[in-house]
Specification:
64% helix; single chain; mainly alpha; 148 residues
């Protein structure tokens, strides 16, 4: 039975991963693809996890203002390159990255400032939870029925 639970959990987490990635892509958030590639399903016995980058939560809510990573300007420059944004020279690129860093540090990202969210995680997690509950309830019902 543990193997059946593990199989169900693995399938549901893989479906959750696919749903989250699809929503992330539909929202136009993909630049380099590293965020998408970082999602990973881990299942052992009857425990499972969907792992991703530590910043994945900003996909749904945006990033609030405040402290930014030391290399944030470099992160922005890699993002701009992945999005096909080019500058006349390195000085212009660094200047752009500095101003964007300051804006995000003070006010947060555009998504955060809008007060809106993009449904990347909420609905897929709710749907997976319902499917998982139904499948596990069915599995346990069969197990109890067969035992009695």
């Amino acid at each position: 039975m543990v193997q059946q639970i593990s199989d169900i959990l693995s399938k549901e987490l893989e479906q959750l991963k696919a749903d989250i990635i699809r929503r992330h892509e539909e929202a136009g958030q993909v630049a380099s693809g590293r965020t998408r590639a970082a999602f990973e399903v881990k299942v052992s016995d009857s425990n499972g996890q969907l792992l991703g980058n530590s910043y994945a939560g900003v996909l749904e809510r945006g990033r609030r203002g405040g402290k930014v990573p030391y290399d944030f300007k470099d992160i922005l420059l890699r993002w701009a390159e992945a999005k096909g944004i080019y500058f006349a020279n390195n000085t212009d690129a660094r200047r752009w990255a500095w101003f964007v860093t300051q804006k995000i540090r003070r006010e947060g990202t555009k998504l955060y400032r809008s007060g809106q969210t993009v449904d990347i995680f909420t609905t897929p997690i709710e749907e997976m939870t319902e499917r998982l509950a139904d499948k596990l309830a069915g599995l346990y019902t069969n197990e109890i029925t067969n035992t009695i």
